[in-house]
Known about the structure:
single chain, mainly alpha, LemA family protein, MamQ_LemA, membrane, LemA-like_dom_sf
Amino acid sequence: xxxxxxxxxxxxxxxxxxxxxxxxxxxxxxxxxxxxxxxxxxxxxxxxxxxxxxxxxxxxxxxxxxxxxxxxxxxxxxxxxxxxxxxxxxxxxxxxxxxxxxxxxxxxxxxxxxxxxxxxxxxxxxxxxxxxxxxxxxxxxxxxxxxxxxxxxxxxxxxxxxxxxxxxxxxxxxxxxxxxxxxxxxxxxxxxxxxxx
Length: 197
């Protein structure tokens, strides 16, 4: 009888430890991360089509195209594994490569505004709309990932589940960060004055 009481006490003490909740939230964050990767892959798949369409514009700046191609190659060369989510350095490296691709694509879109023939090209317009939609999907996927990591990290740091986290080595997961936080926190200067001639 004493043995059954000890087993029952052990089961009751484990039920509040949060172990199962850790498993659930870990899987949720992995699933959310998979969706982020899915959207990044969608964007990477669009880049060759955009580059091919833009190359049709003979006078287009080749330097801009080269930077887009290089950024895509770098972003797709980084192998992402489940361990990447738990390694802040690898996670940061991946984020940096994706940020470089975003930046290169933004420059490409800005530069393309100077080419009326390119802007009039239906294929380019369609690709541009698809790319904008993909960027929005990436934002939504990242937001979902941020929320799932937040929930996991709160569980890992809250008492008494933080004890379970220590026993099973459940460390807080890295979240998205911005590389140029100081730069983007400064409001942009807007000047509507007429330039001097």
